[in-house]
Amino acid sequence: MTLVFAFYHLARNPLFLSTLQEELDTLDPNPEMQHLQELPYLNGVINETMRLHPAVPTGGLRQTPPEGAVIAGRFVPGDTVICAPRYSLSRLETCFEQPHDFIPERWSTRPDLIKDKAPFAPFALGKPSLSSPPSLTLVLKRPILIPYTRIRESPSINDVVGRYYCIGKNLAYMEMRSVLALLARRYDIIFPEGETGADVERDMVDQFTAAPGALRVVLTLRRKG
Question: Long-range contact list for 191-195, CB < 8 A, 24+ apart?
Fold first, then answer.
């Protein structure tokens, strides 16, 4: 799913693709995975795709403790199921500048475009209750909930832990980096004549995990030099 949306954005704006290609051209013909991990723009494309198009758009259910909880200044009765949709949190103006725009640089050369990284936790699947002090402290300080996750005192993407934390995170990053690097380095990617790629977002279905609409692109072998 993430790869579909990534190629959608690369085809939609040739500048993103050419910038990525320039970065990839600095590598050996068969780069090691370690070298791909160190590429800021490649990782920026992946992170920005996961921010705008989380694999689990609405998932993030929690249940308040029996005595209830005060969330963002409002009392919520006990045993109430609440939802923290990642799709909405990732597009808050209080957390990101130009939140609806695809800007890979915000993860490298433009950190000023990130006001609060807390909503970005694409692999966070820990499972606390709101009665646990670390999670409750986070809720009281800001109206942001990282679903099913135990947070240390200063939450960040690297502080997310938990027994249900996504065990496939490293494998997923390896796959995304490898496929993006392989195809973007070898091919130019454009929409067919008359296509805009609008089906990808318009026809996306939230079925716990996101199912994007059809993506039709044309891959043309690059002519370098």
Answer: 191/11, 191/12, 191/216, 191/217, 191/218, 192/216, 192/217, 192/218
- Mean pLDDT throughout 172-196? 95
pLDDT digits (tens, 9 = 90+) for 32-62: 999 999 999 999 999 999 999 999 898 767 7
Residue with tokens 């920005």: 48
Reported as a single tens digit per residue, the pLDDT across 82-109 is 888 889 989 999 999 999 999 999 999 9
